[in-house]
Each structure stands twice: as structure tokens, then as C-alpha cells.
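Pilot study result, target chain (309 residues):
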Amino acid sequence: MKYAVSFLIVAVVVLLTASMVNGEKNMEYRELTAEEESVIVDGSTEMPYSGSYVDTFEYGLYTCKRCNTPLYRSETKFQAHCGWPAFDQAIEGAVLMNPDDDGVRTEIICASCGGHLGHVFTGEGYTETDTRHCVNSISMNFIPGDRIETAYFAGGCFWGVEYIFDHTEGVLYAQSGYMGGSLANPEYEEVCSGSTGHAETVKVVFDNSSVSFRELAMTFFEIHDPTQVNRQGLDTGTQYRSAVFYTKEEQLTTIDELVSILKAQGYEITTQVNPAENFWQAENYHQKYFDNNGGGASCHPRVNRFHRE
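Predicted structure:
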């Protein structure tokens, strides 16, 4: 029932998604020290070679210190010998570039909270992108790779599922997409036809030191009806089926345990559980749909099936 609305707002949403990275969750800014505020809010620059991340190249993810939005992947970091962390590419849509007050340089800021990150330079020839994001260490936090985990949940319309997970503490980002089908790079209309076998799926990347897969999976079983077959409410078709695509055996064990708990309560669980396959990101206008258009996730009301307080 959501197709017609989608096509009418494509042009508007594409423009909005270019400037909006995260929603309300990331508007809950952490309290800054005076030194952090001087750089992030007032736009000053830390002393060269004084930052924590100048010479670190551990696998992981760099996030905005003020709002926790993911900014840079460690794979894009390189040694520029300039005194500050250098990246040749930001995560898509994570940073904005504005003319600096000095009239010469280009400032980079967090697209979510507007916090000052540093400056961007081109034409230096360091890497194939010919781009250097020169970022203050103090503007970022680093999440080591062993704390970053990915889960995939299909629970009907991905707009609401994405919204709820993207606004869950410990989730770094959530993306709407397609999984479980036979066609590579499927388009929305093809998935909606039911001929590709894909389910509308949400990729959830999270910090497992802040939130566990078990907690996320419990949320999943509470924000949709896992007893319905190939439908959620008025949305019908195999693309709306209930499914979990696990990325490691520990996730499978957790899902089996939670399903057993629900079955013991009398629920006839129909959720499909399969290993994760190729995840195809959905079109831009589907990403952060409710953040960009309002309305919240009313299509996914939460039911306390695990009797949590």
C-alpha cells in the first residue's frame, strides 16, 4: 500500500537524504569538555601530532564525538605525515563541506550535528581519490572492529523496522535493503512483484559493547508479528515475510533460544532463519524514510512478548 506514496515523493526525499544522515537519536549530544567544545563547536584546531588517532591504523570505525554518527571507515585512513588523521573518503552522506571563514580552505563538518571536524584538501596526490580529509582527533571517537557487529532483520515494511533500530542506543546505523532472493541488484518494483524472492530487510550495524544481538533480536520479535506468513498487516507478499539472516553461529543460537521462549508462550512462530547472503541496499528514497518524512514507526507498534519491565 505504500508504493504510490513512494513514487510521488522520490524527488523530495533524494534531496533530503543528501543532507540528513541520522535522526533524533543523534540529536542527543554527549556533553563535551572545554577542549572538545573549542574544536567541535567553536571550530578551532588541535595542535599537530597531539591527537590520539594520528598514527593509529587499527581496523574499526570513526564516529562523531558529539553525536556518534559514523564518519570514516579505517580502510580509508592513510599516513599523510601532516600531524592530523587523514582519510581519503568519508562514509557517504556523513560529512558536509562548506567554505571556511578564512576564504581559502574548505571546512568539513558532521552532517548530523554540524560539529567541526577539520578541512578537506584535493590535488595532493596521496591516494587514488586525490582527496585528504584532515580531521581533528578530538572531534572523533574510535570503535575497534571487534566491537562492530552486523545483523539482518526482515519484519515487513522496512521503513518502520529501520527507524526503530536506527533510534536504538548502541546501533551505529541501519539501512533498508533486500536479501534472500535470486536476482542481483534488484530494484524496488522487482522485489514488490514477488518474483525475485527477496525480503525487505534492514541491515543493522551495532556496537556490541553497548547493545547485544540478543537485545536487538528481542526488539525485532516485538516490533512485528512473527506469526504471520508472508504479510504484516495490510502489506502482503513474500517480500514482507518475517526472517532473520544470521552472520555467525552465536546469532543463530540466540534466535533459536528466543523462538523457543515464544513458542512456549503459545506463539506459532513463522520466522525464517537463514545464513546472511548478499545484501542489496534499497534506493535512496527508502533510507531514513520516517526521519525525512515524519510519522514515526506507527506501522510497527511494540508488543512486550518477553515480559520485560
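One observation from the pilot: The chain has two domains: 3-21+146-293, 28-144. A full batch analysis is planned for the follow-on phase.
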